[in-house]
């Protein structure tokens, strides 16, 4: 039972009765309190349901789940037996850190208000999903490495990182040269990450795999119809 001081029972009782809908269970899911307004909504006798399993009185309720997990559920849409929807908050009740029951409060009863809230919830959820997909897409299409991943105390490399910051803010074409394994790809990624085009795709082209005749077209484009009447043959030569 709820641990209320006797001298304060009246005010707590009337507070609960004044709310749109309140039901309280113990940690076994047995109903120990149901206010008149919620009893009217459920079309039950509030006194007759005391001691009954809440899931028998309110089919589909999650109060027993909240009692088991200890996690509150705020702003949950719940459909009643008559088809109407209400907005419910389910709160675990604790004493000395131990769950002794669950209280559920219906916050809204008008269908238009519930529908509006449901729409907001859906839009929020879709927005979160869209941001997640955008993030994943940027990981797939964008540059993988940043300037912070070029780590060195070498004066020459520190000077090069400063140069990367400068050229990344321009629209100039940048030629990166160096021996194999010196980190040319890291530099290219860092420039893209720092540039004003960082939200666009980072396009990689393997120039070694492109025939000489097509390299210029691949890098700078070509006019429509430029290859009409021409036969392009790609072959592999083994010496």
List the helices and strands and how they pair.
Layout: H1 9-18, E1 21-26, E2 31-34, H2 36-42, H3 54-57, H4 63-69, E3 73-79, E4 85-95, E5 98-108, H5 111-141, H6 155-168, H7 184-194, H8 212-220
Antiparallel strand pairs: 1-2, 1-5, 3-4, 4-5
Helix pairs in contact: 6-7
Describe the structure.
With 239 residues, the protein is an alpha+beta fold. It has two domains: 6-114, PAS domain (Beta-Lactamase); 147-219, Rossmann fold (3-Layer(aba) Sandwich). 39% of the residues lie in helices and 16% in strands. It has eight helices and five strands. It has helices at 9-18, 36-42, 54-57, 63-69, 111-141, 155-168, 184-194, 212-220; strands at 21-26, 31-34, 73-79, 85-95, 98-108. Strands 2-1-5-4-3 form a five-stranded antiparallel beta sheet, with helices on both faces. Helix 6 packs across helix 7. It is elongated.
């Amino acid at each position: 039972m709820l641990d209320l001081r006797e001298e304060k029972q009246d005010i707590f009782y009337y507070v609960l009765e004044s709310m749109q809908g309140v039901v309280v269970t113990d940690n076994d899911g047995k109903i120990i309190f149901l206010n008149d307004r919620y009893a009217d909504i459920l079309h039950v006798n509030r006194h007759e349901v005391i001691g009954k399993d809440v899931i028998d009185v309110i089919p589909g309720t999650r109060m027993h789940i909240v009692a088991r997990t200890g996690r509150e559920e705020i702003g949950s849409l719940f459909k009643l037996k008559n088809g109407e929807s209400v907005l419910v908050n389910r709160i675990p009740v604790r004493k000395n850190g131990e769950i002794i029951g669950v209280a559920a409060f219906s916050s809204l009863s008008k269908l238009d208000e519930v529908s509006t809230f449901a729409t907001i919830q859906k839009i929020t959820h879709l927005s979160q999903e869209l941001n997640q997909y955008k993030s994943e897409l940027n990981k797939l299409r964008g540059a993988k490495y940043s300037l912070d991943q070029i780590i060195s105390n070498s004066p020459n490399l520190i000077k090069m990182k400063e140069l990367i910051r400068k050229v990344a803010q321009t629209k100039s074409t940048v030629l990166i040269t160096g021996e194999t394994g010196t980190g040319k790809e890291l530099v290219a990624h860092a420039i893209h990450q720092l540039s004003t085009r960082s939200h666009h795709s980072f396009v990689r082209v393997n120039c070694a795999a492109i025939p000489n005749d097509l390299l210029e077209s691949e890098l700078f484009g070509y006019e429509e119809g430029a290859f009409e009447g021409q036969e392009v043959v790609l072959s592999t030569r083994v010496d």
